[in-house]
Amino acid sequence: MTPQTMEQLRKIDVSEDTELKLEYFFYTNTADKAKLFAEEIKKLNYEVTDKQSAYDNSFIITGWTTKMKMEDKVVANWTKEMCELGYKFDCEFDGWGTSPNQ
What we know:
Elements: H1 2-11, E1 19-20, E2 23-28, H2 31-42, E3 47-52, E4 59-64, E5 68-69, H3 72-88, E6 92-97
């Protein structure tokens, strides 16, 4: 989904030089995994919260990154890193979003 999201950002004049925070979402199946993963995310200096889903028995880890350039390559590499980090901690990376008005 990253290429499609980046395409939409370009349509609203978010250039490769623009720096934005990204909101990220991970899911896992136990509170312990969520807490452990949240601690790992904090090491990246990201804002992070973990809580139980209101809809099922899963746990959500979400927050905001530090600002990064909205270069296609930078965001694609970050997405890959988040997928790998989530896998390492048995947490599924469910994607990201952002707002151009930060």
